[in-house]
Amino acid sequence: MNPLKVVIVGYGMAGARLAELVRERDPEGERVELTVVGAESRPAYNRVLLSGVLDGTMTADDIALHGRQWARDNQVRLLLGATAVRLDRVARVIHLADGSSVGYDVLVLATGSRPWLPPVGGLADERGAPARGVATLRGLDDCARIAALTGPGVPVAVLGGGVLGVETALALARRGAGVTLVHPAPHLMERHLDPTAGMILAGLCRAAGVRVVTGLAAVRHYPDEGVKLEDGAFVPAALTVVTAGVRPETDLAVAAGLGSAEGVPVDDRLRTTDPRVHALGDCARVGDAPSGLLRPAWEQAAVLADLLTGADRTARYRPSPAVTRLRAGNIDLTAFGAAHLGLDSREAEVLSYADPARGTYAKVALDGDQVAGAIVLGLPDAGAALTQLYDTGRPAPTDRPALLLGRALPRAVEDDPAHLPDSTVICRCNSVTKADLTRAARVTGGGVTALVRATRASTGCGDCLPRVRRLAGPHDTTGTQT
Ligand SMILES: Cc1cc2nc3c(=O)[nH]c(=O)nc-3n(C[C@H](O)[C@H](O)[C@H](O)COP(=O)(O)OP(=O)(O)OC[C@H]3O[C@@H](n4cnc5c(N)ncnc54)[C@H](O)[C@@H]3O)c2cc1C
């Protein structure tokens, strides 16, 4: 039987993972003939680590997901710098910007998302792209552009104080730039934090050298001069970085009748309304599950790889609960569940602890004995313990102060993951549990490198690497973040 011709459009974090997993299940290409079409000119890389490149602590090579040889070694036809411009679902052909075309049996849309430029005068040029003196942050080319325009002492405005805005402002401050973070909502990260947490986070940003302006929107950008705010104040800036959110990249799908600006709707098999076209990652919408995050993209890739190769025809995607993490310098923030919105459900028991002078805050919403949501700032042990309780659904201990301060589990996971139940998720990006890691340690003989290779734990944001090291045993102390 001829192999199924699968074409993946988009060689980002979802497309790259899908291609890897397909080849893992079908190494010789007997079942699937694979073509990947990527608009960027370089092999896929880990976008989540871009702020490390921005602050100069990482290089493009450090965050590469694939080397240049990867496609050749894995029988993948890789078209780099190739933008898909039209999808003909009747002829089952995808047309590329250079005039060529690729036929498919099954098409996978993995086109990700693109930064959104708010309707503020002077931010966009006539084509809708960032104007002179304005940048967005989505890829390595953006990092290079921002690096070229900033440096020690250069005034920079960052517009948008969500997770990406805070991370970007702190990264640029670490480069020595004079950063002003402007956010129109009354406090930072208002989609994830309540006002107290937002206020403490702003204090931590200020301590890291970032000027924070909240409650005021930018109304006009002036190239080489800066940004005017709605109260008439002026933020001087040689560069304005816009971090105001992303929108799913769906132009191709919409023109082919498969989605809207909100995303491409898919079912639990990642199928669009056309059974020969699938979508995953940031461009896809599964019900009202959260998107724009790495974990769903990689979980979806595993399901689709099972289905496309026939490795598991019963595989179905079930969204996992989202947990927001902010890691920047010394700031450690975790937020999830009901407390995300700062709204407390009437049934919930809400506990909180704040020490603004030390930059610490914990708020936990409990539904009976279940952790329903939390915001934890500057208390990494509490953040880890509460996340474990949330993930596993285990009852919260009755010692509420211990719960708030991170003494709810026998010992903090960073110190000793051996105490945790097998079902504990150690690597959230890759959905790797403690049981997966201990099984891999048994099979491979242990060692961080072997565990990472076997499970991919720590290859996303890299946060869990200390825990993976602890579970790997004494074999080696190396390991990788990417
Ligand atoms: C700076 C930064 C930090 C982040 N931090 C986190 C984090 O801490 N945790 C988290 O969960 N998520 C984070 N994210 C989000 C995460 O990176 C995305 O959820 C993830 O990259 C989604 O993968 P994707 O493949 O769907 O999209 P992408 O990785 O964006 O890949 C899409 C690819 O498709 C290509 N493409 C688009 N259209 C076409 C076309 N027509 N033809 C060919 N190619 C096309 C694009 O060029 C791109 O290479 C962060 C994102 C950024 C930018």
UniProtKB/TrEMBL annotation:
Its EC number is 1.7.99.4. Its cofactor is siroheme; [4Fe-4S] cluster. InterPro entries: BFD-like_2Fe2S-bd_dom, BFD-like_2Fe2S-bd_dom_sf, FAD/NAD-bd_sf, FAD/NAD-binding_dom, NasD-like. Residues 425-471 form the BFD-like [2Fe-2S]-binding domain. Residues 5-288 form the FAD/NAD(P)-binding domain. Pathway: Nitrogen metabolism; nitrate reduction (assimilation). Pfam families: Fer2_BFD, Pyr_redox_2. Keywords: Heme, Iron, Iron-sulfur, Metal-binding, Oxidoreductase. GO terms for molecular function: iron-sulfur cluster binding; metal ion binding; oxidoreductase activity. Belongs to the nitrite and sulfite reductase 4Fe-4S domain family. This is Assimilatory nitrate reductase electron transfer subunit. It comes from Streptosporangium saharense. The lineage of its organism: Bacteria, Bacillati, Actinomycetota, Actinomycetes, Streptosporangiales.
